[in-house]
Amino acid sequence: MCGIVGIADSPQAAQLAHLGLFALQHRGQESAGIVTSYRCELRPHVGMGLVCEVFDRQALQVLTGESAIGHVRYSTTGASHLKNAQPLLFKTVHGPIAIAHNGNLTNAARLRRSLEHRGAIFQSDTDTEIIAHLLAREPGPLVSAVIASLRQVEGSGCLLILTPEQLIAARDPYGFRPLVLGDLDGTAILASETSALNLLKARLVREIAPGEVLVLERGRARSLKPFPPAKLSRCVFEQVYLARPDSNIFGRNVQAVRREMGRELARQTKGIKADVVVPVPDSGVSAALGFSDESGIPFEMALVRSHYVGRTFIKPSQELRELAAELKLAPVPETLRGKRVVLVDDSIVRGTTSLKITNSLRWAGAREIHMAVSSPPIVSPCHYGIDTPRCEELIANRRSIEEIRRFLKVDSLHYLELGRMLRAAGGGDPSGFCTACFTGAYPTPIPDYEQRMAKPDGRKHRKVDTR
Question: Is 2 a catalytic site residue?
Answer without folding.
Answer: yes
